[in-house]
Design goal:
The protein is mainly β. 6% of the residues lie in helices and 48% in strands.
Length: 128
């Protein structure tokens, strides 16, 4: 049973934009901070962005800050990752995850070990 579903990945040219979506159940979304992580080929999974339960606090990895924007829509039980000014080094499998109730501070939300529900990922490829 898929509890978190990502969509919106694809192939885009350098400088282009994509918007990823992450949909989950209301029961999960209503009690979870949401995060995006990515895993480039042959590398470890890394933090991209996170948003707290209220949507009022967001965090970004250094490599995407200023280019990516995370948001959430409670009416749709969906979190988004708007990715602008994409670079070839953004190429990766992007994962969405839910963090239910373990805190909304930076140290918690950047750490993938604090996320309890994960999607299967969506591939983003940026061509040069």
């Amino acid at each position: 049973q898929v509890r978190v579903l990502e969509s919106g990945g694809g192939l885009v040219q350098t400088g282009g934009s994509l918007r990823l979506s992450c949909t989950t159940s209301g029961a999960i979304f209503s009690r979870s901070a949401m995060g995006w992580f990515r895993q480039p080929p042959t590398e470890e999974r890394e933090f991209v962005a996170a948003i707290d339960l209220s949507g009022g606090t967001t965090y970004y990895g250094d490599s995407v800050r200023g280019r990516f924007v995370i948001s959430r829509d409670s009416a749709k039980n969906t979190a988004y990752l708007q990715m602008n000014s994409l670079k070839p080094e953004d190429t990766a499998n992007y994962y969405c995850a839910a963090n239910a109730g373990s805190g909304a501070d930076y140290e918690t939300l950047v750490n993938q070990r604090h996320y309890d529900t994960w999607g299967q990922g969506t591939q983003v490829t940026v061509s040069s």
